[in-house]
């Protein structure tokens, strides 16, 4: 990267765009057969017991942990950082930011396919000085040669050959956007309905969301009303704990920057966002044009300036607040990707720390299973660090572990505080706007972080009032759309001579919110969310 560099606006700092992790994809490839997979009252586990699972009485929160199959090896010496010191530094950084006063947060970019998500983010990274001119020209020439000139900005994030050939995002692409007051980990999610499972994996790692909608005539309606993914994406991110959302009304140049079109979209979308659980004070609408860069970092378009006097996209992202976290909790790191490190880096995993703190030299347990490994190195936002805390999206390299014991959806935890396993549990769910009701015994796909497992809604216990929690009906026959209910969910039994129920690392929502959220899908649509 040389030549004419793009200048960052005041307050924006530059990171090296060439410094990439071994894979910029945060999720597995998209074939359903290859994906392991991914919210409202406390989970209660049905009593089960086998070699790999626990007896968990969620009602009483009594957890009986399995005995190790063999004595735990003595952990090697840790880097000499006391836990109390790490906790103090983590709390200070969460409150006051890093040495430059910038807080860290992760942002998932969502929206219907062809809304222009990757193009908008590629252009935003360029405008903020994260893509040098030489790299931009390379993408421009390569995309034009491939007959995909209109996708040149998107190629900064859509790096896969198949993604570039098809012109759509398929996996979660990651990048880092430093602003004046924030260091933002960008998770660019696929918009096509075939890749919603990958979108769920990305959303489970996010603090906030950027929803991109297409302002072109008929395009917004297609994504929002015509069986598009806008509604499903909104429901998913809110169910996974996202509370702040910025809505980028993109491609305003296609409608001549008309205020009436912007208002029309806002009037249609805001009530649905509120219905999904977003507070209006946490929703912001911003008009923009991703291809031309209008209102991403500044607005110099007269037609827009004639009626818009608000801030550009980057200013709104710069003001997003990360959630408040308690770091003094058991270590939980759900794995979203596994890969072989370069040179001597070893085996790498990526994921978001859902609880606790971790440091280099620490020994961790991989669950399910009884294998342990040692933390060899930690990367946060492409920078090597000695420790990381809950809320951080990290790449971790492990030593003393065979990769056969690592899989997407497994959880790293402390050998002395193992995450519970469950094969059947009770959950409070909210049913989405579905066409067919849920009945007892319904087959579903259960999503927990990046893990996808076959399951069934084995019992309908009761329906409850969403506002008060009061029981409406016990042992209902069906669950219609928009209902709230307590149900039993059972993972399906594996096939073969040693068939037994699958199990997943799971905790009550009251213990760890991120470890207690689930989503249910059926027939290619998300039908419910629970916890």
UniProtKB/TrEMBL annotation:
Highest classification ranks of the organism: Eukaryota, Fungi, Dikarya, Basidiomycota, Agaricomycotina
Similarity annotation: Belongs to the TRAFAC class translation factor GTPase superfamily. Classic translation factor GTPase family. EF-Tu/EF-1A subfamily.
Recorded GO MF terms: GTP binding; GTPase activity; translation elongation factor activity
Tagged with keyword Transmembrane helix: no
Catalytic function, reaction form: GTP + H2O = GDP + phosphate + H(+)
InterPro entries: EFTu-like_2 (IPR004161), GTP-eEF1A_C (IPR054696), P-loop_NTPase (IPR027417), T_Tr_GTP-bd_dom (IPR000795), TRAFAC_GTPase_members (IPR050100), Transl_B-barrel_sf (IPR009000), Transl_elong_EF1A/Init_IF2_C (IPR009001)
Assembly mode: Component of the Dom34-Hbs1 complex, also named Pelota-HBS1L complex, composed of dom34 and hbs1.
Domain Tr-type G: 102-331
Gene Ontology biological-process entries: cytoplasmic translational termination
Record's keyword terms, sorted: Cytoplasm, Elongation factor, GTP-binding, Hydrolase, Nucleotide-binding, Protein biosynthesis
Entry keyword annotation includes Hydrolase: yes
Name of the protein in its database record: Elongation factor 1 alpha-like protein
Localization (cell): Cytoplasm
Region (Disordered): 1-79
Pfam families: GTP-eEF1A_C, GTP_EFTU, GTP_EFTU_D2
A GO term from the CC aspect: Dom34-Hbs1 complex
CDD domains: EF1_alpha, HBS1-like_II, HBS1_C_III
Entry's transmembrane regions: none
Compositional bias per record (Polar residues), positions renumbered to this chain: 17-36
